[in-house]
Every structure is written in structure tokens, then in C-alpha cells.
Amino acid sequence: MEFQFRPIKVEDVKQIDSWNYDGFVEKVEMAPYFESLNQTGKLQGPGGCEGYAAFHEDAVVGLFEYNVNGRIMEVGLALRPDWIGKGLGATYVKQGIAFGLHHYDEAINEVRLEVDERNKAAIRVYEKIGFIRVAQKDQDIEMRMFV
């Protein structure tokens, strides 16, 4: 399965904002995109990250967010709710990271992310592809992978 990553557009933000998840996460937080658009005219995600919509067969199926600081690339991500639990997680995360490493063409040697400790399925996916747990604050686990 191949995912295509494209710079996020307003219509993608609106679509992702409508996704509803069962469990402890109800929605992907898209408010920063709307706020930055209103304030600066640009779509920027949390912390000024750059957002990319993930497509499969011209349908938005995911979100990948990147924030590069020196040799570290921080990522945030989401997969459309109806795509979760179908065994696509590792492929999606690997392709999103590969896209970021290629796109930013930096001397990146570390990828970081945070995940809620209750999101056991995501943690398994991240560990499967090489992330390790390095810290925990409240319910957020910080994970890192060296590339």
C-alpha cells in the first residue's frame, strides 16, 4: 500500500477535523490550523509544524505533521478512524517518516513523537518499527527512533 503526502489544504483540515474516534481520543486537534489561517493566512499546525495530508486513491486517509529542529524531526500523526485496526499502521508510519526525511533533506538523525499511554495499539506499532520509550509526563509517552 502506497500513501501520497501533500501539503495540507483547508478542505483537508475540515475533513480531518470531522473525524471521530472511539475511545479516549475523540478528535484530532485541528484548531491550530484554523487559528494560524485566520492570523497569518497560512496553514500551520500545533507549535508551527507543517501539516501534510496522506492520500490513498485520492481520498484523505491520514495526517502527518513535521517540525524539524536541527537534527531532530518531531512528528505528529493520525490515521482516518475507519482505517485503524486493519494492519496498516506500521506501513503508514514508516512511509510518513520516509517522506519527512526525504522532503526536509536535512541531516536528521532522530525522530521523536508523543503518544498517550492508553493508545496501546499505536505504541505497539511505534515499537515494532524501532521507536523506544524515553520519558513519560502524565499520560504522554515520549518516544524516539534513531535513523
TrEMBL record:
<dbReference type="InterPro" id="IPR016181">
    <property type="entry name" value="Acyl_CoA_acyltransferase"/>
</dbReference>
<dbReference type="GO" id="GO:0016747">
    <property type="term" value="F:acyltransferase activity, transferring groups other than amino-acyl groups"/>
</dbReference>
<feature type="domain" description="N-acetyltransferase">
    <location>
        <begin position="3"/>
        <end position="147"/>
    </location>
</feature>
<dbReference type="Pfam" id="PF00583">
    <property type="entry name" value="Acetyltransf_1"/>
</dbReference>
<protein>
    <recommendedName>
        <fullName>N-acetyltransferase domain-containing protein</fullName>
    </recommendedName>
</protein>
<dbReference type="InterPro" id="IPR000182">
    <property type="entry name" value="GNAT_dom"/>
</dbReference>
